[in-house]
Write a structure and sequence with these properties.
Number of helices: 7
Oligomer: single chain
CATH class: Alpha Beta
Bound molecules: fe (ii) ion
CATH superfamily: Ribonuclease Z/Hydroxyacylglutathione hydrolase-like
Distance between the termini: 5 Å
CATH architecture: 4-Layer Sandwich
Strand content: 25-35%
Number of domains: 1
Radius of gyration: 17 Å
Structural class: alpha/beta
Number of strands: 18
Largest sheet: 7 strands, mixed
Strand order of the largest sheet: 8-5-4-3-2-1-18
Amino acid sequence: MRILSLIDDLTATDRLAAEHGSAIYIEYGGKKILFDTGASDKVIVNAERMLLDLGKLDAVVISHNHTGHIGGLAHLLAKFPSLTIYAKRAAANDFYKGAAFFRFRMSESAAFFKRYADNFVLFENFQEIFPGLYLMTDESADGSHRPDNRRFFEKESGKFKRDEFKHEVFMLLMRTQDEKDGCVVISPCSHLGVPECLETARLNFPHSPIRGTVAGFRLSVGGKKLTVKRDFLESNARRVADLTNYTVYACHSAGKLGYEALKPMMGDQLQYLRAGEEIIF
Ligand SMILES: [Fe+2]
């Protein structure tokens, strides 16, 4: 399988556009999949510069309904109107960020999902979209274990309620038909936590070692300061190391600052996957 970062907060070269968001191009079992679409039309710009034909995509998967992940979708649909898009059913709603007196929408609207209803495959939970490629999440989690999630809201019947991130999903790809050969986990943003994703992968596939992880850790959004405390970072590093011995590629919401803070705790196990870089498993 080939995993190529198309959009990230960091790029490997200044010939590619960077933005706060994520889009990962995946070739797997003869299929071409785009996991998230970045925040804007930059996903199309970067794909053209990398000579990737997004018109040949078999599927788009949306990790959650936040602009950095779904913002490029309208641009993609304008160019490729017959795309098939997978997302959690809970994503088809309005999501906000902010404090008590100032909240701004940071998602596509429920109306957007209605307009493109023919393109969307909305699912409740665990989903195998191609043989060996799974979408899943920790259905018992509500995001309350991460203090930084308190700034996020969902609007339901005109009222704000805390976002429980029921709209978030991560991807698991089996390396071969034999689960014992291991799997790769991709979770571009991880509002529900990276160790939590790996634990869910382990629960669903207990005999499949996690041979690679690509994950946003949500550590330094905005890039100016860390959004979590040091003991939280240390426990994340420890829990991840307990769940996988293989390389973990930070991306997007980890940020440069978060990556640099985690690096001394995880050593060589931690790398960063910038836009323009690819991993072959
Ligand atoms: Fe994000």
